[in-house]
Design brief:
The complex is a heterodimer of chains A (294) and B (379). Chain A is mainly alpha-helical. Chain A is 72% helix and 4% strand. Chain A starts with a helix and ends in a 14-residue tail after the last helix. In chain B, strands 7-6-8-9-10-14-15 form a 7-stranded mixed sheet, with helices on both faces. A 5-stranded parallel sheet of chain B has the order 2-1-3-4-5. A 3-stranded antiparallel sheet of chain B has the order 11-12-13, with helices on one face. Classes of the chains: A mainly alpha (294), B alpha/beta (379).
């Protein structure tokens, strides 16, 4: 029973990292209607910036996170402006391919700057651990921090898109870009802001990811990025609570699958569950089914 | 004018004498080609090997008797360039090759050398493919999978553990190969394996694997993997208050060089390696001192492997009666005879014998990490 609880907590810990990345995916998809495959790599860049700020400039962790957020926000807006905006009227496939291109560009630039030698991310948020059941159940502060960060970000995003003027503009762009433009909404600025928020989230996700799993390489963001994308689809892409639930479930299934079925089948199991869910609920757990209008 | 002519004549005469002298010297000296990456991303290995070989040559030439001349060529860890380097050293008169340093080039050069009948002794190319099906290619280092059985032997002999857990990368041939030979040897030796778990290159959560080892009560965790995932496993174990003995192989080498790595995590980690620079015997210390003079660095296992390779070639050549005038093809057959016979070389990396596959047999040794440095283990 204790070991089950421990695996559950490990699963929640892994899942909350997926969830925080998935929030960025789902946010951009929900509003700009594009899959930003470079999201995982923005996470990696954010982690490197935070690493450099702490290791080379000796900045305190919170300042380092802020620096990473600022850098990634600018990076996200630059990527959107240079790579995606010119393709606003192009086919979805063209945008998708461009996103993959941006992903490779970021990875290889990181390879040039920071080399392929892995760096170990300092454990900045380690403020102690909680031990239960005679030390058989250990909950690290990183896990708690990630979960809290998730909940805060999810509530903040929901409030932002629901209550503020900018958030309403985002939803309008999401519903019907053409009509929104006719109503006087600056579509380009709205999408740019979406990328800015998504990338700032990526910076936070990068720091949390590397605090939980402290090796940092140019490829660090790619696999968690793909898993998080799966989580976003699982929960219903475009839905903010969906990303959170999808991420958590994915992490729990992965860890429990590895623990009770086989370490070799852990990943396969995750994707098998995804297929089953999509067979019964094609829009994901919390996704709204879209009807083609005739 | 006459004066100038005289000078020219004298100079010419000197040059000719020197030429003759050097030709005579080169005629007598055994010519060994050393090929490895002296530049590029793998330069650290090639240069270690080059300087290791040079220290060996200094020692051998100081003894007198059969002298050695090294012919060194850079291959930049590229199979194509390595073949060019191989042809270059042969053109310069190399009779045998101490190389190549890295695996991929070694497979290519080995195939060509097998056709040309040139003897090769690679210090450090550890894949089985390097020697597979080639009667003329031999290794100083253990083959990758042989590290598995060597580790099992070492753990049993030094009574490091009774219950062993293994965490390996089942997406990687290197890791899986070592895992298989470890399990086979462990069964022979009666070493109990209580947990076997796997991961892949993309895994970054090791909580399940470490928990499985902990729950099974393993007092040693065998990690036939590279140091990047190993660093995550060490961190995970620490967060679970789990402190078994961790035992790695050569893939673990480098863990202390990771930027930002907390060396206290690796405290007490064992690593199977043929060489530790702080060994107290006279020969190792002389080698380390001379190597440091040449390069300013502490020699690693590649330097020691290459040092041993040169000594082995020299010893075998002496026994077979090979000198600077022996044709490379003849030297090849004679050396094969020696290496598959009862040649025994006592080197820095252990006492070595070879069989006809080309693989080496020697006693496994290990180092343990203490205060962020490798220390020889005498248990």
């Amino acid at each position: 029973m204790v070991s089950f609880l421990r695996f559950l907590i490990n699963g929640i810990s892994l899942g909350s990292v997926y969830a925080i990345i998935a929030l960025g995916y789902t946010m951009v998809y929900g509003i700009a209607k594009m899959l930003n495959f470079a999201h995982g790599d923005v996470i990696m860049v954010g982690a490197y910036i935070a690493f450099c700020a702490m290791q080379y400039l000796g900045l305190p962790p919170l300042v380092a996170v802020l620096a990473a957020m600022v850098f990634c926000t600018v990076l996200g807006m630059v990527i959107e402006g240079l790579a995606y905006r010119p393709l606003r009227q192009a086919t979805k496939l063209a945008v998708l391919i461009t996103a993959i291109g941006v992903s490779y560009l970021l990875q290889n630039t990181a390879l040039l700057i920071w080399s392929s030698n892995p760096k170990v991310f300092p454990s900045v948020f380690n403020i102690g651990t909680i031990r239960l059941f005679d030390g058989n159940l250990v909950i690290s502060s990183e896990t708690i921090l990630t979960i809290v960060a998730n909940i805060v970000i999810m509530i903040a995003l929901t409030l932002f898109t629901g209550r503020t003027k900018m958030g309403k503009a985002m939803r309008a762009v999401s519903e019907d870009r053409g009509a929104a433009e006719l109503m006087g909404i600056n579509v380009n600025r709205t999408i740019s802001l979406t990328f800015a928020i998504g990338s700032a989230l990526a910076a936070i996700a990068g720091v949390l990811l590397c605090s939980a799993y402290p090796t940092l390489q140019p490829t660090t963001g790619s696999m968690p990025g793909i898993k998080a994308f799966t989580a976003a689809v699982f929960g219903g892409i475009g839905s903010i609570p969906g990303a959170m639930i999808g991420g958590l479930l994915l992490g729990i299934i992965e860890i429990l699958g590895k623990a009770y079925i086989s370490t070799e089948l852990g990943d396969a199991l995750v994707f098998a569950v995804l297929i089953v869910v999509l067979l019964f609920k094609p829009a994901g757990l919390l996704g709204k089914p879209m009807r083609e209008k005739v | 004018m006459k004066f100038n002519k005289a000078i020219v004549a004298v100079i010419l005469a000197i040059v000719m004498i020197m030429g003759l002298a050097s030709a005579a010297m080169a005629e007598d000296a055994l010519k060994i080609g050393v090929i490895g990456p002296f530049t590029g991303a793998a330069a650290i290995y090639g240069n270690a090997c080059k300087y290791g070989a040079e220290v060996a040559v200094e020692e051998i030439n100081a003894i007198g008797g059969l002298q050695i001349e090294l012919l060194e060529e850079d291959d930049e860890h590229d199979a194509e360039k390595s073949l060019n380097a191989y042809n270059t050293v042969l053109d310069k008169g190399a009779q045998m090759i101490a190389g190549t340093t890295t695996t991929t080039p070694c497979i290519a050069v080995g195939a060509q050398a097998n056709e040309d009948r040139i003897f090769m002794l690679t210090p450090s190319a550890s894949s089985v493919d390097v020697i597979d099906g080639k009667d003329n290619v031999f290794q100083v280092c253990f083959t990758d999978p042989a590290q598995g059985s060597a580790s099992a032997k070492y753990i049993t002999e030094h009574q490091l553990a009774t219950k062993v857990a293994i965490i390996y990368n089942n997406a990687d041939a290197y890791s899986t190969g070592i895992y298989q030979t470890f399990v086979e040897e462990a069964a022979n030796l009666g070493l109990e394996i209580v947990s076997e778990t796997t991961f892949t290159d993309e895994t970054n959560d090791f909580s399940v694997q470490v928990a499985a080892a902990k729950d099974a009560g393993a007092d040693l965790v065998f990690l036939p993997i590279y140091y990047t995932p190993a660093s995550l496993i060490l961190a995970t174990a620490k967060s679970m208050d789990y402190a078994p003995v961790f035992f790695g192989v050569d893939g673990m080498d480098g863990i202390l060089t990771m930027e930002g790595f907390d060396a206290s995590l690796a405290e007490g980690v064992f690593m199977l390696t043929p060489f530790s620079a702080d060994a107290q015997d006279e020969r190792t210390q002389a080698f380390v001192a001379r190597y440091q003079e040449l390069t300013g660095e502490i020699p690693n296992q590649f330097a020691a492997d290459c040092y041993d390779a040169v000594w082995a070639l020299w010893n075998a050549s002496m026994l077979a009666g090979i000198d600077g005038s022996t044709a490379p093809e003849d030297a090849c057959e004679l050396l094969i005879e020696q290496f598959t016979g009862d040649l025994e070389i006592i080197g820095l990396t252990g006492t070595m014998t070879w069989d006809e596959t080309g693989a080496v047999t020697k006693t496994p040794t290990a180092v343990v990490i203490q205060d962020g440095a490798y220390v020889g283990f005498n248990g």
